Amino acid sequence: MLVRLETEMGSANRPAGTLLRTKLINKARGRVQSNLPLTHEYLEEVSGIAARLDRKSIDEAIAILYGAWKNDNQVFAIGNGGSASTATHFACDLNKWVSDAAERKFRAFSLVDNIPLVSALTNDNGWSDVYYEQLRNFLRKGDVLVAISVHGGSGSDKAGPWSQNLLKAVKYAKDSGGKVIGLSGFDGGVLKTASDACVVVPANSTPQVEGMHLVLTHLMSEQLREMISAQAKRPGETTY
Fold this sequence. Notes:
By secondary structure, the chain is of the alpha/beta class. Helices cover 55% and strands 13% of the residues. It is built from 8 helices and 7 strands, in the order ααβαβααβββαβαβα.
């Protein structure tokens, strides 16, 4: 129930600050109540999107990452905008959470984190080469590239087509004997067909796609941690 602002008899005796505070509280409570349907709708969308995810592509991505750990290959993660933060987060989880108690740990790197290097490459070579140039230095045959993009390279804005730097890096990784995992949304874009395994979030909403990408990286991290732990429990294994 909303707080009563004033009574006919007592309003004149209330300090002005008290009346203003009461009005603000009432206004805020009204906003909270009016936002509840939007909150319900958003969370229902999240539930529906999760239910429609392709489990097979998730398992394929996990298998590629597990193979990288088993064969001591490197994992590189890339993305632009919000997807850049997901790339950093995923590399962190692979190195820490998944590898926490492992004798041989993941070797995972986010190529968005070295700001001086990223800015130097952008300034001298152009934004389209920022990941490609780093992979030329670091990538070896069998390494894995995780490319994260909401639209998967489809669409454009004021600067031109989206995520062309990711697609150039993906092509280089494939041509150099690496494997590619894609995380995308909308219709999957070019990344859907260019990857060895691509999980496409079935949503046409950037916030929903970006949010589900974090869910997916956490899911994969949890699965990988369990798989590596199970491997260590086999007789004669000393890898964990």
